[in-house]
Amino acid sequence: MVMVVLMGATSAWADEPPVEALVPPPRTGWRVQGLPLLNFNSDEGFGYGARLLLVDAGDGTYRPYRHSLIAQFFQTTRGVATHRLMMDSPRFFDSDWRLGLDLSFINERFSPYFGQGAAAGYEPDFARCDDREQLEDAQDVCAGNPSFRGLRYYSFEQRTLPSVVFNARRTLRGPLQVSVGYRFRLTRIRSRYSAKDLGQSRDSRLEEDARAGLLTGLEAGG
């Protein structure tokens, strides 16, 4: 009985494939992945877009990959937009340098602003109106809230075109690395909203601080 068990076990081991055969072959060349982008909120509206990822694994020896490229298109029915093109090359032209590049167009229509430093503060009633429909006819008054200053009192719009971020780094020895980078961003700020966006006629918190001389580079009412 013992001999039979041993022989059976030996036969089972002999049928098992070698460990090398269980390891999948490395991925090579280019592969593509995609992701749809959808969202909704009452301020920004319905958002739609897509993100596309292209990865070049080269001959399979590059870790984590030879090159990667991400392209994103996203915008909403209320004008919010985030369009980006991002590149990452861990071994740029087979060198020891890792290069990254990020090109973006960003339109943030409802960015928050609550003040500067210790003077910052938030009073919910200043921008709260439970019945938004009434604001379509009169944006400065909200029935039942005498403290109301405007639905967009704490908001401003910033439109960035372009945004450029470049970085390069390489390992020197052990944990030591050298890194260099450059960033350029051209942003236009608007502090007023139209009646279509339920914007009030009075100053926002951002404009109040600009008129008080707490901010530079912003023309109140622009």
Protein described:
- The protein is mostly beta strands and about 220 residues long.
- The chain has helices spanning about 1-15, 20, 205-210, and strands at about 30-40, 45-55, 65-75, 80-90, 100-110, 155-175, 175-190.
- The chain has a domain at about 25-115 and about 160-190.
- Helix content is about 10%, strand content about 40%.
- A hairpin with an 8-residue loop joins strand 4 (about 80-90) and strand 5 (about 100-110).
- It is elongated, with a radius of gyration of 28 Å.
- The chain starts with a helix and ends in an 11-residue tail after the last helix.
- Mean pLDDT is about 90; it is low at about 1-5.
Beta-strand segment tally: 7
Note the main sheet.
7 strands, antiparallel
Q: Which residues form runs of ≥5 with pLDDT under 50? A: 1-7
Order of the strands making up the biggest sheet: 1-2-3-4-5-6-7
Order of helices and strands: HHEEEEEEEH
Number of helices: 3
Mean pLDDT: 88
Question: What's the helical proportion of residues?
Answer: 10-25%
* Anisotropy-based shape: elongated
How many angstroms separate the termini? 94 Å
User: Over all CA atoms, what is the radius of gyration?
Assistant: 28 Å
Beta-strand percentage range: 35-45%
Q: What is the structural class?
A: mainly beta
